[in-house]
Design a protein that fits this description.
The chain is of the alpha+beta class. The chain is built from 5 helices and 10 strands, in the order αββββαβαβαββββα.
């Protein structure tokens, strides 16, 4: 006797939702849109807030000692006279054939941008005081239109000036260039070409290589320098309002 064949099993209907191709693309579009919105939110709100909170410059070193020098008008000045002000300080000598001219030009840009702020000052310190007398510095300033009263060009005792710039401002020591390696008779010194930013409490906050050969990098350095000067000036507490009443 033969065994009957089992009845065929009817297929179970598939009630699970089907994913259509257009659904996948719609989902991708939504994610992409969300990514764009998220990115815009990140860069418009979150990033600026983080940057503003972390923008405060570090304190790198402090000018613990004072410097006495002679200005281009022949007057004796002290850096302590700038207490409470923000200033830039850098090496410059009037016959420099290398980067000094660019240092002066870049400092001039900042002088012009902050000329209206009496809390801002600039200081150029000569590397070659034997040549850079007050009279020579005055001629240099006049020839290059650098006559602003908030810009000191200093000369004096060579050893004292270099010691201060190295030990207090923390610039690299000056190296005399051997005669065989000079590009011209005036090419006397290999010196630090950075500009130092000093705040109102005599702290050096940052150094800037304003002679960077790449134009793009140079532009970024100048943008940072301008922003940092404004930031450090903003740290100065506003004067208390006067309580004096008129009679």
């Amino acid at each position: 006797m033969s065994t009957p064949s089992p009845a065929p099993v009817a297929p179970v209907p598939d009630d699970s939702p089907r994913v259509r191709p257009w659904t996948i693309w719609a989902l991708i579009a939504i994610i992409a849109f969300g990514g764009v919105v998220g990115t815009q939110l990140l860069f418009k709100r979150i990033v600026p807030e983080v940057v503003s909170q972390s923008r405060r410059l570090p304190y790198l070193t402090r000018l613990e000692k004072d410097l006495e020098a002679t200005n281009s008008d022949g007057q004796t000045v002290r850096l302590s006279q700038l207490d409470g002000k923000v200033f830039l300080i850098a090496y410059v000598y009037t016959t420099c054939p290398r980067g000094c001219a660019e240092i002066v030009d870049k400092m001039r840009v900042m002088q012009e941008k902050f000329a209206a702020d009496p809390r801002f000052h600039l200081v150029s310190v000569s590397l070659n005081p034997a040549h850079d007398t007050p009279e020579q510095l005055a001629r240099f300033r006049e020839a290059h239109g650098l006559t602003a009263s908030n810009w000191w060009f200093l000369t004096g005792d060579e050893e004292a000036l270099r010691y201060y710039m190295t030990k207090q401002v923390d610039l690299r020591p000056v190296v005399d260039i051997p005669e065989k390696d000079r590009v011209s008779p005036e090419d006397l010194f290999d010196h630090d070409s950075r500009v130092a930013l000093v705040d109102a409490t005599s702290h050096v906050r940052e150094y800037y290589d304003v002679t960077a050969p790449d134009p793009g990098i140079n532009r970024l350095v100048m943008q940072k320098l301008e922003a940092d000067i404004a930031s450090v000036l903003a740290e100065i507490a506003a004067p208390a309002p006067s309580t004096t009443t008129a009679n």
